[in-house]
Inverse folding.
């Protein structure tokens, strides 16, 4: 049951945010304080924040709906979202100055989601 909840919440969240970022690539840049200064920046944000996150969200939803993909999707969460959390913690250790709430909130969400996915993987039920 825990795994299904993790997959549903992650899938819906990533899909919705990905679609929002496809529609408006300036959305994530506004949260973290950078400016999209050219076509490549716009395309990069559309692809990474929009396409990649929407696709990952759909993958997680597939795992929530189809038990054949359940474990693979949870493993994907552990590696993908876990790596995001580790990357942010590494980045936090490298910056001079105080990051905003966005970074801390993302670290908490990503770490919690990774931990819950790991717990769900250890469980024998779906």
């Amino acid at each position: 049951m825990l795994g299904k909840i993790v997959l549903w919440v992650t899938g819906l969240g990533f899909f919705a945010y990905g679609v929002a970022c496809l529609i408006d690539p300036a959305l994530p840049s506004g949260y973290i304080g950078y400016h999209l200064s050219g076509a490549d920046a716009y395309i990069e944000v559309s692809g990474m924040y929009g396409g990649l996150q929407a696709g990952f969200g759909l993958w997680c939803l597939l795992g929530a709906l189809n038990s054949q993909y359940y474990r693979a999707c949870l493993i994907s969460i552990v590696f993908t979202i876990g790596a995001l959390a580790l990357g942010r913690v590494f980045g936090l250790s490298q910056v001079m100055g105080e990051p905003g709430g966005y970074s801390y909130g993302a670290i908490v969400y990503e770490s919690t989601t990774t931990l819950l996915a790991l717990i769900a993987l250890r469980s024998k039920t779906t």
Remarks:
- Residues 2-122 form one domain.
- The chain has five helices and no strands.
- The CA atoms of residues 36 and 42 lie 6 Å apart.
